[in-house]
Specification:
Helices cover about 65% and strands about 0% of the residues. About 25% of the residues are buried.
Protein backbone atom coordinates (compact mmCIF):
# COMPACT_ATOMS: atom_id res chain seq x y z
CA UNK A 1 0.00 0.00 0.00
CA UNK A 2 1.31 3.44 -0.92
CA UNK A 3 2.27 5.84 1.86
CA UNK A 4 -0.56 8.26 0.99
CA UNK A 5 -3.12 5.44 1.01
CA UNK A 6 -1.87 4.16 4.36
CA UNK A 7 -2.01 7.68 5.82
CA UNK A 8 -5.60 8.14 4.60
CA UNK A 9 -6.55 4.78 6.10
CA UNK A 10 -5.31 5.73 9.58
CA UNK A 11 -6.30 9.42 9.45
CA UNK A 12 -9.72 8.95 11.18
CA UNK A 13 -7.86 7.81 14.30
CA UNK A 14 -6.46 11.31 14.86
CA UNK A 15 -7.31 13.89 12.20
CA UNK A 16 -3.82 15.33 11.77
CA UNK A 17 -2.42 14.65 8.31
CA UNK A 18 1.15 15.14 9.54
CA UNK A 19 0.55 12.56 12.31
CA UNK A 20 -0.98 10.08 9.83
CA UNK A 21 1.88 10.41 7.33
CA UNK A 22 4.54 10.14 10.03
CA UNK A 23 2.93 7.01 11.46
CA UNK A 24 2.43 5.47 8.00
CA UNK A 25 6.14 6.02 7.23
CA UNK A 26 7.03 3.74 10.17
CA UNK A 27 5.35 0.70 8.65
CA UNK A 28 5.42 -2.12 9.40
CA UNK A 29 4.72 -1.80 13.12
CA UNK A 30 4.21 -5.40 14.12
CA UNK A 31 3.52 -4.93 17.82
CA UNK A 32 0.43 -3.08 19.03
CA UNK A 33 2.30 -1.50 21.96
CA UNK A 34 4.92 -0.12 19.59
CA UNK A 35 2.18 1.39 17.41
CA UNK A 36 0.70 3.15 20.46
CA UNK A 37 4.12 4.38 21.64
CA UNK A 38 5.04 5.72 18.20
CA UNK A 39 1.64 7.37 17.85
CA UNK A 40 2.14 9.19 21.16
CA UNK A 41 5.71 10.14 20.27
CA UNK A 42 4.69 11.61 16.91
CA UNK A 43 1.70 13.43 18.45
CA UNK A 44 3.82 15.11 21.12
CA UNK A 45 6.29 16.37 18.50
CA UNK A 46 3.69 18.01 16.28
CA UNK A 47 3.12 21.75 16.11
CA UNK A 48 -0.01 23.32 17.62
CA UNK A 49 -1.33 23.89 14.08
CA UNK A 50 -1.30 20.12 13.57
CA UNK A 51 -3.10 19.66 16.89
CA UNK A 52 -5.70 22.22 15.76
CA UNK A 53 -6.21 20.26 12.55
CA UNK A 54 -7.02 17.16 14.61
CA UNK A 55 -9.29 19.09 16.99
CA UNK A 56 -11.26 20.53 14.07
CA UNK A 57 -12.30 17.03 12.96
CA UNK A 58 -14.52 16.56 16.01
CA UNK A 59 -18.14 17.59 16.44
CA UNK A 60 -18.89 19.68 19.50
CA UNK A 61 -19.69 17.71 22.64
CA UNK A 62 -23.44 17.19 22.65
CA UNK A 63 -23.84 17.64 18.90
CA UNK A 64 -24.17 15.00 16.22
CA UNK A 65 -24.03 14.97 12.46
CA UNK A 66 -27.15 12.93 11.75
CA UNK A 67 -26.54 12.11 8.10
CA UNK A 68 -22.77 11.74 8.28
CA UNK A 69 -21.87 8.04 8.05
CA UNK A 70 -18.09 8.41 7.91
CA UNK A 71 -15.89 6.44 10.26
CA UNK A 72 -15.07 9.68 12.07
CA UNK A 73 -18.71 10.53 12.70
CA UNK A 74 -19.62 6.99 13.71
CA UNK A 75 -16.76 6.87 16.24
CA UNK A 76 -17.63 10.33 17.62
CA UNK A 77 -21.24 9.26 18.15
CA UNK A 78 -20.12 6.15 20.03
CA UNK A 79 -17.69 8.18 22.14
CA UNK A 80 -20.34 10.75 23.05
CA UNK A 81 -22.98 8.18 23.97
CA UNK A 82 -23.00 9.58 27.53
CA UNK A 83 -24.90 12.64 26.27
CA UNK A 84 -28.56 11.71 26.64
CA UNK A 85 -30.48 13.38 23.79
CA UNK A 86 -33.58 13.58 25.98
CA UNK A 87 -31.80 15.81 28.53
CA UNK A 88 -32.41 19.16 26.88
CA UNK A 89 -31.22 21.02 30.01
CA UNK A 90 -27.78 19.38 29.84
CA UNK A 91 -27.59 19.80 26.07
CA UNK A 92 -28.38 23.53 26.50
CA UNK A 93 -25.66 23.86 29.14
CA UNK A 94 -23.17 22.04 26.92
CA UNK A 95 -24.06 24.26 23.95
CA UNK A 96 -23.57 27.44 26.03
CA UNK A 97 -20.34 26.22 27.65
CA UNK A 98 -19.01 25.06 24.25
CA UNK A 99 -19.67 28.56 22.88
CA UNK A 100 -17.85 30.16 25.85
CA UNK A 101 -14.93 27.79 25.38
CA UNK A 102 -14.66 28.58 21.66
CA UNK A 103 -14.78 32.32 22.37
CA UNK A 104 -12.09 31.95 25.04
CA UNK A 105 -9.68 29.55 23.28
CA UNK A 106 -10.56 29.82 19.57
CA UNK A 107 -11.20 26.09 19.06
CA UNK A 108 -13.77 23.48 20.03
CA UNK A 109 -13.66 21.79 23.42
CA UNK A 110 -11.88 18.43 23.12
CA UNK A 111 -12.44 15.77 25.75
CA UNK A 112 -12.02 12.01 25.66
CA UNK A 113 -15.74 11.37 26.08
CA UNK A 114 -15.68 7.57 26.16
CA UNK A 115 -17.18 6.35 29.40
CA UNK A 116 -18.08 9.84 30.64
CA UNK A 117 -21.55 11.17 31.34
CA UNK A 118 -22.66 14.50 29.96
CA UNK A 119 -22.49 15.90 33.49
CA UNK A 120 -18.86 14.78 33.84
CA UNK A 121 -17.90 16.32 30.50
CA UNK A 122 -19.70 19.53 31.43
CA UNK A 123 -17.89 19.72 34.79
CA UNK A 124 -14.56 19.21 33.02
CA UNK A 125 -15.47 21.92 30.52
CA UNK A 126 -16.26 24.40 33.30
CA UNK A 127 -12.96 23.55 35.04
CA UNK A 128 -10.97 23.91 31.84
CA UNK A 129 -12.49 27.32 31.12
CA UNK A 130 -10.34 28.49 34.06
CA UNK A 131 -7.08 27.34 32.42
CA UNK A 132 -4.61 29.75 30.88
CA UNK A 133 -4.04 29.36 27.13
CA UNK A 134 -0.88 27.21 27.36
CA UNK A 135 -2.26 24.89 30.02
CA UNK A 136 -5.47 24.42 28.06
CA UNK A 137 -3.68 23.73 24.79
CA UNK A 138 -1.66 21.01 26.49
CA UNK A 139 -4.74 19.55 28.17
CA UNK A 140 -6.65 19.54 24.87
CA UNK A 141 -3.67 17.86 23.17
CA UNK A 142 -3.56 15.17 25.83
CA UNK A 143 -7.29 14.56 25.49
CA UNK A 144 -6.79 14.17 21.71
CA UNK A 145 -3.94 11.74 22.40
CA UNK A 146 -6.30 9.63 24.53
CA UNK A 147 -8.96 9.74 21.81
CA UNK A 148 -6.37 8.64 19.26
CA UNK A 149 -5.36 5.69 21.42
CA UNK A 150 -9.00 4.56 21.67
CA UNK A 151 -9.55 5.00 17.95
CA UNK A 152 -6.40 3.06 17.10
CA UNK A 153 -7.86 0.19 19.12
CA UNK A 154 -11.13 0.45 17.15
CA UNK A 155 -9.22 0.65 13.88
CA UNK A 156 -7.33 -2.52 14.80
CA UNK A 157 -10.52 -4.24 15.94
CA UNK A 158 -9.27 -4.62 19.53
Amino acid sequence: MALSDAAEEILPCCGSRRWAHALARLRPLLEVEVLFEKSDEIWRQLAPTDWDEAFSCHPRIGETKEHDTTTWSRWSSQEQSGVDPSRQDIRDQLRDANRRYEERFGRIYIVCATGKSAEEMLAMLYRRLENDDGTELNEAADQQRLITQLRLRKWLGL
